[in-house]
Amino acid sequence: MDKIAFITGSSRGIGRAVACRLAREGYAVAIHYLRAEDCARSLLEQLLREGCRAAVVQADVADREAVTAAIRQAEAALGGPVSLLVNNAGIAEQHLFQDVTPAFWRRIFAVNVDGAYHTIQAVLPAMLHEKRGCIINTSSIWGQRGASCEAAYSATKAALIGLTRSLAMELAPSGIRVNCVAPGVIRTDMVEVLGADTLRSLAEETPVGRLGTPEDIANAVAFLADDRASFLTGQVLTADGGFIV
Ligand code: NAD
Questions:
Q1: Where are the domains of the chain?
Q2: Contact between 59 and 114 (Cβ < 8 Å)
Q3: Residues 6+ away with beta carbon under 8 Å from 55
Q4: Alpha-carbon distances, residue 241 vs 149, 216, 229 (angstroms)
Q5: How far is C-alpha 1 from the geometric centre of its chain's CA atoms?
Q6: CB 110 near ligand 1, within 6 Å
Q7: Among residues 101, 158, 103, 160, which one has the least CA distance to residue 135?
Q8: What stretches of the chain show up as alpha helix (H) in DSSP?
Q9: 3-state DSSP: the chain helix, strand, coil percent, rounded to 5?
Q10: What is the distance between the alpha carbons of residues 29 and 47, in angstroms, rounded to a whole number?
Q11: CA pair distance 56, 4, nearest whole angstrom
Q12: Quick one: which of 55, 36, 22, 63 has its CA closest to 225?
């Protein structure tokens, strides 16, 4: 089985860093985007210039048919089935729980949880056939610990931990590993809404004395994806500079 990685939501932020890292480690990578076609295409050009193999596909992960079609399109472009799936795409919003609307509740579960359900089911038949594969979901320290005003987000991220552990047990006999990264506070568009003062105090609260970078999470993903991690499955790798220790 060729090394082919599909990284959801990889036009920016953590997903982009993961795509770069895996491409430089020899994976053919599918750069997947929702709206930012320009960003996805500039990453594609950068990786192709570096001699990496890559392709760009678009889909809303909440749309089962669209994301399944995007995976098939990526496999056709990259010349084989996905051997590494990184479920990175996600959304977050802060609300008091009593202000969470049914529409927002459904949307955040549709993207963060159903998205992973759709992509995993799309790549599984080939992985089961090959008796080999690696799936990495993206949870959060809020999924492990919970966070005020982030109940909906935290619930989706906790769901991914349950999904990861259960699938790890179900799929290990088929040679497929399923793990999860749980990032702490990482400097991306997602956390910029918190504002400079909050980000400064979060950095001060972090034992290593800084916020995380997308590359910190790419390192954790690359570690879990590596064959040297072949005895690791069902794990939640917290990468948070010691924030929730
Ligand atoms: P980001 O907002 O920069 O990136 C999110 C990506 O997901 C974007 O590329 C976006 O287009 C994509 N996306 C969102 N909805 C989508 C949809 N419906 N279909 C397809 N793609 C969609 O944020 P980020 O910080 O890079 O987040 C990446 C992942 O890491 C998310 O799952 C997030 O929950 C998780 N995470 C982030 C932090 C953090 O502090 N930044 C902490 C813990 C976990």
A1: 4-239
A2: no
A3: 28, 29, 30, 31, 44, 73, 74, 77, 78
A4: 22, 10, 21
A5: 22
A6: no
A7: 160
A8: 13-24, 37-49, 64-78, 102-109, 115-130, 141-145, 151-171, 189-192, 196-205, 214-225
A9: 55, 15, 30
A10: 9
A11: 13
A12: 22
Alpha-carbon distance 130 to 46, whole Å?
31
Q: What's the rounded Cα separation, in Å, for the pair 86 and 121?
A: 13
Question: Which distant-in-sequence residues (6+ apart) come within 8 Å of 196 by Cβ?
Answer: none
**153: annotated active-site residue:** yes
The CATH code belonging to domain 4-239 is 3.40.50.720
> Can you say how many angstroms the Cα of residue 190 is from the centroid of all Cα atoms in its chain?
14
130 Cα: distance to centroid of ligand 1 (angstroms):
30
The Cα–Cα gap between 108 and 85 comes to 20
Q: Taking CA 148 as the corner, what is the angle to CA 91 and CA 116, rounded to the nearest 5 degrees?
A: 30
Inform me whether the pLDDT recorded for 72 exceeds 90.
yes
According to the model, what pLDDT value does residue 104 have?
Answer: 98
**pTM tops 0.85, yes or no:** yes
Is the CB of residue 137 below 6 angstroms from any atom belonging to ligand 1?
A: no
Q: Locate the ligand 1 atom nearest the alpha carbon of residue 138 and give its number.
A: 32
- 173 Cβ contact list (under 8 Å, min separation 6): none
pLDDT tens for 33-61 read 999 999 999 999 999 999 999 999 999 99
Point out the catalytic residue in the list 27, 33, 117, 153: 153
Q: Please compute the mean of the pLDDT values over residues 118-138 and round it to a whole number.
A: 98
Q: Which residues have C-beta within 8 Å of that of residue 242, sequence separation ≥ 6?
A: 206, 207, 208
148: number of Cβ within 10 Å: 10
Token pair listed for 68: 């399944």
